[in-house]
Amino acid sequence: MQPKTRVLFLCTGNSCRSQMAEGFARALRPHDIEAFSAGVVRHGLNPLAVRTMAEAGVDISGQASKTVEELPMQEFDVIVTLCGHANENCPYFPGKARRVHAGFDDPPALARDARTEEEALGHYRRVRDEIKAFVLGFPGASAGGGGTD
């Protein structure tokens, strides 16, 4: 049996996109990905991210917003930055980690001017579904990543 690929999903605040990616990786790829998420800073778990993930059958309510320094480990096979700020400010990680940037729109920013909660949720759902597709298509079922960027 191949070892799992250790993947860190990194975003600015670890409140929404990186939490969604971690949740999908744990739910949909438990046999080949060991998923973690963190932020450059900690913003707290976004309740609308929790809600839209629950709609997709994935419970992330037990996950916590954390910074890179708070992670239980610091060696990863792949570090996926999910926003431009995290990509530009990605901290140094020891070891052979491969960096991949997969930018996704920021649901809270998109929903800021929403006139209704349902309109706001539409932004979260779209990005959630894009992240799900990314996680499902993420290459590499063995340590060291494999596949292509």
From TrEMBL:
It holds the Pfam family LMWPc. Keywords: Arsenical resistance, Oxidoreductase. Residues 5-141 form the Phosphotyrosine protein phosphatase I domain. Its EC number is 1.20.4.1. Gene3D superfamilies: 3.40.50.2300. It is an enzyme of class 1 (oxidoreductase). InterPro entries: Ptyr_pPase, Ptyr_pPase_sf. The keyword Oxidoreductase applies. GO terms for molecular function: arsenate reductase (glutaredoxin) activity. The keyword Oxidoreductase applies. PANTHER family: ARSENATE REDUCTASE (PTHR43428:SF1). This is Glutaredoxin arsenate reductase. It comes from Fundidesulfovibrio magnetotacticus. The lineage of its organism: Bacteria, Pseudomonadati, Thermodesulfobacteriota, Desulfovibrionia, Desulfovibrionales.
